[in-house]
Amino acid sequence: MEHVFVYGTLRQGCSNNYLLSGAMYLGAAWTRDRFALYVHDYPCLVKDRAAAFIRGEVYLVDAAVLARLDRLENHPHWYVREKKPVRLDLGGEIHAWIYFFPEPRGRLVDCGDFLAVQ
To answer: Annotated catalytic, 82?
Structure first.
């Protein structure tokens, strides 16, 4: 079982959340570190600058769900997942997989919350 932090279309109420079917929702969270979230045709999280803490959700996933997410994100050829610390709203810090895009694309989401621009 692995922890995954999702920040875009995989979040609850968004178009790709169904891919997390069978995963356990652990709650809302923020990244411990600042990153830059861009929105183009899809959200892109990049490490090019420390723009904002990123808002998302954490799930506990099995190997089958993680494989579905990897296919969606075309890991490691398009997005690349890395383990980073995230802070759960309910308390505590864990390391979770986060999918990063290799370059900025689209407009910067200053607040770090994809849902704020939807």
So the answer is: no
